[in-house]
Isoprenyl transferase
Amino acid sequence: MIYPAYEARLLRRLPENLPRHVGVMLDGNRRWARAVGHDTAHGYRAGAANIEPLLGWCGEVGIEVVTLWLLSTDNLNRPAEELEPLLQIIADAVDSLAVQRRWRLNPVGALDLLPAETAERLKAAQEATRDVDGMLVNVAVPYGGRREIVDAVRSLLSEHAAKGTSLEDLAGVVDIDMIGSHLYTRGQPDPDLVIRTSGEQRLGGFLLWQSATSEFYFCEAYWPDFRRVDFLRAIRAYALRERRHGT
């Protein structure tokens, strides 16, 4: 009875300056599984089950964009006996979200590195929710911040090569906005708040370009144990900060 009352009080007292875009690093699934005496796949399934509640909490406070980091490009180097079940769990979770048609799903990442079946399922979820008038949910699979910047520069170079622009001319005009227009999240607001669970206090390459002025919130709970009250505390912490968009 204590937590529902506390959550309701937090919700009532939230200031008006709430984030538009929240990035979430869903970390700690494997450690949670070990802590409760189960295998890794059980931890991933428990983490996947917590995604829908999170999106509900985000919608509750009016967040417009959520970016979920579900798999890094480095994770693709894990042993096949761990990676294959993880990819299946991720695809199943995204399928489940798409069927509900409550959110507009947008895969972001190096989809060309995924098995063809997994990539196609993510693209199908995107297509199935394209016309949904709901919160935009970026599904970062597999995602790496350095890889995104490299892909953006490659895309920029290819675009101008097709136009016949010389490298010398391009070097004279390229700027932040031009590179930004080729990122996976082009056209979206940068994340105002980035949440990382599991107690780790580092970005690990998440939204490197976009998070230059983001606020960060690190939560001790492993992702499967992340609760509504933890989310509301993160939102409150963000709202109470005095944001400085410089140094």
